[in-house]
Every structure is written in C-alpha cells, then in structure tokens.
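Troubleshooting entry. Yesterday's outputs looked truncated, so today I'm pasting the complete records for two proteins to confirm everything comes through intact. If either block looks cut off, that's the bug. Protein one:
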Amino acid sequence: MGFRADSLALAAGIAALAASVAAAQSPTPKPETIWLDAHNAERAEFGSEPLRWNDALADEARRWAVRLAREGRMRHAPIAARNGSGENLWMGTRGYFRPEQMIASFASEKRHFRAGTFPQVSTTGNWADVGHYTQIVWRDTRDVGCAMAQGRDFDVLVCRYWPAGNATGAQVAPRPRVANR
C-alpha cells in the first residue's frame, strides 16, 4: 500500500511541476495586445470591424499619459494637439488593475447606451455617460494606440483613436445580426 501511495504522490508532484513549468514558459501577453483584443471584442459584439494597433497613436498616448501622471490630474489633450484623433482616459490605483479591466471600465458604459444620433445616445440623457464606449465601437474608427504611465499612487491609461468618433449628427447603432438558420 505504501508503494502505491508514494507512486501516486510522486506522479501528482510531477504533474504539478510540469504544469508550473508550462505556465512559466507561456509568454504573458503584452498590455498592447490585451488592450487591442479588449477593444476588438467590444467592436465584434457591436458589429464594428476590428481595430488595428497604431504605434504612432500609442506614442502620442504615451507622451500624454506621462504628462498626466506627472501633473497628477486627468484632462483631455487639446483637440489641436491630438491631430484629429479621439481620446479615452482612465485612472486607477497604481498596480491594482489589469489591462483588460481598464478597457472593461470604458465598455461598462454600454449599460447606458441606446442607438441613435450622436449625442442623443445615452439612456441618462448625457452622452458623456457613454462616450468612452461609443468611441471604442465607433464604426469609422480604424486604428487605436494606448499607453500607460504611473503617477505616485495611480496608473493613467490614454487610448488614442483614428479617426476620432463621437461626431455630432452621426448615427450610432449596432450592426444587425443575421439569424442562424
């Protein structure tokens, strides 16, 4: 009996070691990949085409995120400084939030979204309650670049979008789904 129990314990130990080695060898996705995938999951659900990662937008976002982290406050970059790109901003406790949670906070605004003509697209009557979400799913937007910077006790995420969304007078509605037959 002792031999069998020892063998089972040894086999379990080897299996656990193999699993931990495999996990250690699996590369952790870069934040850029996670941010892009999270954006594209929301766009797919809405019926918008996937976004492409844009390094130039990410570099602009990084510079603005560093500035916000240094200043310790949130504010959008002046429109002229964004070269026609849209912008989503996020701030949270330093080191506490994963990249996908940052984008999920933007996407959580969909609970207030209603299809319509921008800016009348929120069940609350205030487009700012859905503005991050509508920028993510905006049909004409094709590129995204995001970057994070750390302040003293907070993280700042800036995402830039090309072309910008949230254009007054534009229709914002999910693409109709084709029923399975």
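Protein two, checking that the full record survives here as well:
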Amino acid sequence: MGLLPRHRGLRAGTTTIGVVCRDGVILASDTRATMGHLVAHKKAKKIHKIDDHLAMTIAGGMADAQWVVDVLRANASLYKLELGRPMPVRSAAVLVANLLFQRRLFPLLTQLLIGGRDHEGCHVFCLDPFGSLTEEECVATGSGSFIAYG
C-alpha cells in the first residue's frame, strides 16, 4: 500500500480495523510485527478467533495481547459449557475491559477490537490499555490508524 502524499516519510506499525455490517462484522489487520525500525515478523497473527461468533484484533505489545486473547478464549469456553450458549459479544468486551482496568497502574500495552454477531446483533468494541470501552460502527486502531482513517 503506498502512502498518500501528505504521509510520505511517515511509517506506521500495526493497523487493525473493525466495521459493523448489516449481516456481520469485518475485522482486518496487517501482518507485520515491528519493534521500532526492526521487522520482527512478516506474518504475525493479529486477528484471533475466540468462538464461532466472536473474534479479536490486537495492536501493541504482542505478549500482553496474546495473554488477553488466551484469558478471553478460556472464559468464553467456560461460559458456553456452564450456560449452554455462546458468550454475548458485549459480555466478552466488558470482561476484557475489566481485565485491562484492573491492570491500569501497570497497563497491558495493547489496543484491542472485539467484534462479532450474537442474539443482540452485530457489534465492534474498541478497548484501550486502561479498560476504556466504546462500541463503534467503524474503527481503526494501532499506530497506522491515521492512515486507515485517511
């Protein structure tokens, strides 16, 4: 992807996007993992399936984000086993927001999108490192989000 003229000379790290559609959601990301000017991995996995109806994108510190993915995946499985139905998208987002808020003094350096479709409809939630939670129709995260927004 070429940079727009006003963005020449600027380089971005991760970019993830989430869009709510009539019949579902779109979650997308780049695949490059960087540390400053170092390309650590060219095919990093930044979109994670949590359940059949639920997924998450990650931007920021990979170890922190992968821990959140593992915790959410385990809780979604327990929810389904105990209640016999999938965890609602909003419940997944609130759970992660609470995890992040608990760590606000020593934050997990990650920005997340949680999206999916459930009995309430289609949702995309954006979470920052301190647990702030917003529901969005269209959102971009990561250091490349300014390019995604145009």
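Both blocks look complete. Sanity check on protein two: The chain has one domain: 16-149.
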